[in-house]
Design goal:
heterodimer, A: mainly beta, six-stranded mixed sheet, 9 strands, 0% helix, 44% strand, B: mainly beta, four-stranded antiparallel sheet
Chain lengths: 110, 116
């Protein structure tokens, strides 16, 4: 069960768009449409922002969007806001009641 | 109010065990699986295991097999995660999460500190 691969950090200016990638294998990301993304501010519990690759929980702005191509999932945040500065984690179902997380990406809003 | 409320922080000595609880409210406990995740200081999220309240069955990440036990008491809508043979590497915040719409509902986290 190897962790999914995310960039350690990304950055953008307010109003810009950023994309965070999440690369796995055909046994996890590529094999199931059960990729989810979580936003975590310091000292807080993770907050779900995308599930089932593209779906947004109620209350999550449509500035957040998800996609997947092959073994790589992506989270795009458009119209960056200062409050988007946080750590972001991807997560994928990996079969047989197992889950795998990405290593996390720190988003800095310049 | 739909929520998961976890037990309070714990300080344990090396070699001891810890049992963290996760009480569900606002929904039918047996309808959704519970996932346990931990986060060491300054580190990322790590999946520990998967607990099925309707059957009582669990599945564990390889590195926790034999050391973690996930159980539940349906009458009080509470899941538990017990971790034995603690070392300083187990110092972390432990989270439970409900498996619906991804991990759509999280507990507040329980800090477990392992120190002599």
């Amino acid at each position: 069960q190897s962790a999914l691969t995310q960039p350690r950090s990304v950055s953008g200016s307010p109003g810009q768009s950023v994309t965070i990638s999440c690369t796995g294998t055909s046994s996890d990301v590529g094999g199931y449409n059960f990729v989810s993304w979580y936003q975590q501010h310091p000292g807080k519990a993770p907050k779900p922002i995308i599930y089932d690759v593209t779906r947004r929980p109620s209350g999550v702005p449509d500035r957040f969007s998800g996609s997947k191509s092959g073994n790589t999932a992506s989270l795009t945040i458009s119209g960056l806001q200062t409050e988007d500065e946080a750590d972001y984690y991807c997560c994928s179902y990996a079969g047989s009641d197992t889950v795998v997380f990405g290593g996390g990406t720190k988003l800095t809003v310049l | 109010q739909v929520q998961l409320v976890q037990s309070g922080a714990e300080v344990k000595e090396p070699g001891a065990s810890v049992k963290v609880s996760c009480k569900a409210s606002g929904y039918t406990f047996t309808s959704y699986d519970i996932i346990w995740v931990r986060q060491a200081p300054g580190q990322g999220l790590e999946w520990m295991g998967w607990f099925k309240p309707n059957s009582g069955n669990s599945n564990y990440a390889q590195r926790f097999q034999g050391r973690a036990t996930m159980t539940g008491t349906t009458s009080i809508s509470t899941a538990y995660m017990e971790l034995t043979s603690l070392t300083s590497d187990d110092t972390a915040v432990y989270y439970c999460a409900r498996n619906l719409a991804g991990l759509g509902l999280w507990g507040q986290g329980t800090l477990v500190t392992v120190s002599s």
